[in-house]
Write a sequence for this structure.
């Protein structure tokens, strides 16, 4: 009694393949004739037909079993041929997609347009720099004329940076807040509203004392540095105005403190009367401190205004316009040159990529043609294999049939089976030979290399043309070494 019969059948069934081919990665897998013979029950049918002396001795046609074998093999041939045609169609599509003719045509067109596009960018940059250079020339002439008229050729303007200017403005704000705070404490003594009222009056005095002095120094007193005698007089009178304003304002604030402590009404009239009758008659030491402190705040604002910018009025503004135009022109020229360099480098990088792409496509083309040739050879070998398999299966059937027959066998049992071959037709009219393709790619590579040189030459010419604008609109001694 067989052990584990059911388990053995399950084990064998799982180990058997689910098809009649040997496991392989070939597109046309070889037949396993032993497996096929078993699945078609060739030996069993041969024995049955042989015992019945089928086919008869005078039969000229294949019997049902032989026809089944032949039909199965021919079906495999047809299926394999369809597989071959599908693969050949895929190869043909891949070859068309390589599109060498189209790429070569586009490369030729690009060679002409690339230089034109680059030169268009050069022209646009030159026009923009031309305008900027004219603006620079205008500010340069303005500065030169200002220097000559005011005899300032031997020194440059003292420009303040953004940080320094901001600090000077913040210093004025600091003075305003500080004086308001200090004076508010002193003026709160006689004010009905106390500290709040004192701070309010103190802010009004401090604003005129600090901000007024700053503006008078910035726009008036600095006129003393002018070459014109009339403008010097403006500066001189501005200085006298500041001195009188600083003394009068701070004395008035000191008198206001003393009078507000005793008088409840008409404080303004009383302050004005005392200021005219006895201006320096301060009875309280705190009032004197208030006067001196206010005057010192005014002096600090005066100095800040005088040195806010260049001492000579108008020089800093004129020089700043020139410097801004020069930096703008230099920055624009640098930007334009960098842009052209970026365009050139991007162009050359793409050219190198095109050359590499063509070489890669050439290798791909050769690989496709080789694979196509290999595929047709494999199909031819597969047809031979199918013919051999059919002959082997027929031989198994006939040998088994012959062994059990009691009558003579048919004559066609001795004849060899010949499989009708399917012919493969490949259209190679659009194929590139590797030699021809290599020569064409080499020619294109030479053209592209020449294109890179033309772009590089155009870049050098553009840089030279940009620098020539400096000679076309030369600067005066302000910006040139001459």
């Amino acid at each position: 009694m067989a052990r584990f019969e059911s388990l053995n059948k399950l084990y064998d069934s799982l180990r058997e393949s689910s098809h009649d081919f040997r496991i392989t990665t070939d597109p046309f897998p070889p037949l396993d004739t032993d497996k096929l013979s078993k699945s078609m029950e060739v030996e069993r049918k041969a024995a049955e037909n042989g015992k019945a002396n089928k086919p008869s001795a005078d039969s000229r046609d294949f019997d049902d079993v032989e026809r089944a074998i032949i039909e199965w093999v021919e079906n495999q041939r047809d299926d394999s041929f369809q597989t071959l045609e599908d693969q050949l169609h895929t190869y043909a599509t891949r070859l068309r997609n390589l599109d060498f003719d189209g790429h070569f045509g586009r490369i030729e067109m690009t060679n002409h347009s690339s230089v034109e596009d680059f030169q268009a960018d050069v022209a646009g940059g030159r026009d923009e720099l031309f305008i900027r250079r004219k603006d620079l020339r205008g500010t340069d002439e303005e500065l030169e004329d200002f220097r000559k008229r005011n005899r300032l050729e031997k020194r440059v303007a003292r420009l303040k940076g953004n940080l320094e200017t901001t600090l000077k403005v913040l210093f004025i704000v600091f003075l305003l807040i500080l004086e308001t705070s200090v004076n508010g404490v002193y003026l709160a003594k006689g004010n009905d509203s106390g500290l709040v009222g004192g701070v309010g009056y103190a802010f009004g005095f401090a604003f005129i004392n600090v901000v007024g002095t700053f503006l008078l120094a910035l726009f008036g007193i600095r006129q003393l540095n002018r070459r014109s005698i009339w403008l010097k007089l403006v500066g001189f009178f501005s200085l006298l105005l500041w001195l009188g304003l600083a003394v009068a304002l701070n004395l008035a604030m000191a008198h206001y403190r003393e009078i507000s402590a005793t008088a409840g009404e008409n404080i303004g009239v009383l302050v004005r009367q005392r200021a005219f009758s006895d201006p320096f008659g301060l009875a309280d030491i705190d009032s004197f401190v208030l006067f001196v402190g206010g005057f010192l705040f005014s002096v600090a604002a005066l100095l800040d205004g005088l040195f806010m910018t260049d001492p000579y009025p108008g020089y800093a503004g004129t020089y700043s316009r020139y410097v801004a135009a020069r930096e703008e022109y230099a920055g624009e020229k640098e930007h334009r040159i960098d842009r052209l360099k970026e365009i050139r480098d991007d162009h050359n990088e793409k050219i190198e990529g095109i050359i590499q792409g063509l070489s890669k496509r050439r290798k791909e083309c050769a690989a496709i043609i080789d694979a196509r040739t290999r595929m047709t050879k494999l199909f031819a070998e597969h047809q031979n294999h199918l013919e051999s398999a059919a002959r082997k299966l027929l031989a198994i059937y006939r040998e088994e049939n012959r062994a059990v027959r009691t009558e003579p066998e048919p004559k066609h049992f001795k004849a060899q089976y010949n499989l009708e071959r399917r012919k493969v037709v490949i259209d190679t009219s659009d194929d590139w030979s590797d030699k021809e393709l290599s020569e064409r790619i080499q020619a294109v590579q030479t053209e592209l290399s020449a294109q890179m040189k033309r772009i590089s030459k155009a870049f050098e010419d553009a840089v030279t043309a940009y620098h020539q604008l400096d000679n076309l609109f030369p600067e005066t001694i302000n910006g040139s070494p001459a």
